[in-house]
Specification:
The protein is mainly beta and about 110 residues long. It has one domain: Rieske Iron-sulfur Protein (3-layer Sandwich), CATH 2.102.10. The chain is about 0% helix and about 45% strand. It contains no helices and ten strands. It is globular. The two termini are about 15 Å apart. The mean pLDDT is about 95. It binds FE2/S2 (inorganic) cluster (FES). FE2/S2 (inorganic) cluster (FES) binds next to loops.
Length: about 110
């Protein structure tokens, strides 16, 4: 098996407040980059799995994000949909912080 995934710099950690989310556009896709209160970072697709809305415009509570359009909630650590009308999980991506920069693994 060939590993073609690459780590791409998304933003500076200090541009992303704790317990918040930031949109990151790369190529033809939008991603949602999350930072927890204890400085962990997580990345999901930015487009909701229910209808068209940017998850990064949503409201972050702990490790949950509420979609701004119909209030479907997702656990951004796993992408799991937590309540209707959201029922399909968000795709998640590996993320890490090195020297103050957030990197996302894109395959
Ligand atoms: S568009 Fe996100 S819950 Fe409907």
């Amino acid at each position: 098996m060939t590993d073609t995934a690459t780590w791409v710099a998304a933003c500076k950690l200090n541009e992303l407040p704790k317990e918040d989310v930031k949109r990151w556009d790369h190529g033809s896709k939008s991603f949602a980059v999350f930072r927890t209160a204890d400085d962990r970072v997580f990345v999901t697709d930015d487009i909701c799995t229910h209808e068209y809305a940017h998850i990064s415009d949503g409201f972050v509570m702990g490790t949950t994000v509420e979609c701004p359009r119909h209030a479907g909630c997702f656990d951004f650590r796993t992408g799991e949909a937590l309540n209707p009308p959201a029922c399909n999980r968000l795709k998640t991506y590996s993320a890490k912080v090195e020297n103050g920069t957030v990197f996302v693994q894109i395959g």
